[in-house]
Amino acid sequence: MSLSNAPDLFKKAMTESSADFGTITSPFVFEAVIRHSLSPIDLAGYSRIQADVKEVATPAWMKLFDVSVSRWYSSPSAPH
């Protein structure tokens, strides 16, 4: 998937999916951290996109997460 305007691509992908959360990651972070820490199945969720930011055009990695926030976050208890 490639589009010159990564923010627009990200917004469109979030709107058209059931994702609750998404991220765009630099090639450095993807290669140094993500690629080495995830299983091949988890890596399959990342899409390589083209990000044009200011005067720089660079590849980037996008992933949408469709896990409900309520499954991993619980709000603090209300004061009594």
Key phrases:
single chain, 80 residues, alpha+beta, three-stranded antiparallel β-sheet, 4 helices, 3 strands, 38% helix
Give a verbal description of the structure.
This protein is of the alpha+beta class. It has one domain. It has four helices and three strands, in the order H-E-H-H-E-E-H. The chain has helices at residues 6-16, 27-37, 40-43, 69-72; strands at residues 21-25, 46-53, 56-65. The protein has a three-stranded antiparallel β-sheet with strand order 1-3-2. A hairpin with a 2-residue loop joins strand 2 (46-53) and strand 3. The radius of gyration is 15 Å and the shape is flat. It starts with 5 loop residues before the first helix and ends in an 8-residue tail after the last helix.
Brief rundown of the structure:
38% of the residues lie in helices and 29% in strands. It is of the alpha+beta class. Strands 1-3-2 form a 3-stranded antiparallel beta sheet.
Ranges where pLDDT stays below 50 over 5 or more residues in a row are none
Order of helices and strands: HEHHEEH
Would you report the number of β strands?
3
What is the mean predicted local confidence, pLDDT?
A: 76
> Strand order of the main beta sheet, please?
1-3-2
Bin the helical content: 25-40%
The helix tally amounts to 4
Tell me the major beta sheet. 3 strands, antiparallel
Number of domains: 1
